[in-house]
Write a structure and sequence with these properties.
- The chain is of the alpha+beta class.
- The protein has 3 helices and 7 strands, in the order βββββββααα.
- The chain has helices spanning about 110-120, 125-130, 160-165, and strands at about 1-5, 15, 30-35, 45-50, 65-70, 70-80, 100.
- A 5-stranded antiparallel beta sheet has the order 4-3-6-5-7, with no helix packed on it. The protein has a two-stranded antiparallel ribbon with strand order 1-2.
- The protein starts with a strand and ends in an 11-residue tail after the last helix.
């Protein structure tokens, strides 16, 4: 079932596919539909990701996950689990990196309410979800400068350590979110 919604931009209609919500129980499926929290209302549709075997038990509707999108990692919300009927088997899906919170942030009822709110007010779906989640529990990606080992597991060389120790006092402790 598809619903046409009048878009905010240039008076064009946006096409949204209704995503069936589950009961909230853990799903044993290999794919998940994720609505990305990009801070942009231009990309207001779910993307399908592959769920790795090691995190399948922790994925359910309402889970907040970390997924690759373009060249960066972004937080997103699982809005559906299971094989998508319109997914092409020849397309290689990108995997979900991790589950950010073991407890789902919202139920399937909140998901339905956010979808209705988005369709009624022409607001981006992700903004409607954010409005219905209690403040202070959303995961934000922050980058820090840290002494010690690099992500690859390699140790910093003595000149690199010295440079980092000189630069560290002038660097902010964390980057402000955009």
């Amino acid at each position: 079932m598809e619903i046409l919604q009048k878009g905010k931009y240039h008076g064009k209609a946006k096409r949204f596919k209704m995503v069936s919500s589950s009961s909230g129980a853990h799903e044993d499926s290999s794919t998940a539909d994720v609505l990305l929290d990009l801070g942009s209302s231009r990309i207001d549709r779910p993307f399908t990701y592959f769920v790795p075997e090691e995190i399948r038990g922790g994925i359910t509707v309402g889970s907040q996950v970390l997924v690759p999108f373009r060249a960066r990692l972004h937080a997103g919300y699982v809005i559906g689990c299971g094989a998508s009927a319109d997914s092409d088997p020849n397309i290689e899906l990108r995997p979900i990196v991790s589950v950010l919170d073991p407890v789902p942030l919202f139920s399937s009822e909140i998901l339905d309410l956010s979808r209705w709110l988005s369709q009624t007010t022409c607001a981006p779906w992700v903004e409607c979800i954010r409005c219905l989640i209690p403040t202070g529990i959303l995961f934000r990606i922050r980058e820090f400068a840290v002494k010690g080992e690099v992500k690859t597991g390699e140790k910093l060389s003595p000149p690199e350590e010295e440079l980092l120790s000189e630069l560290a006092p002038s660097l902010p402790a964390e980057r402000a979110p955009r």
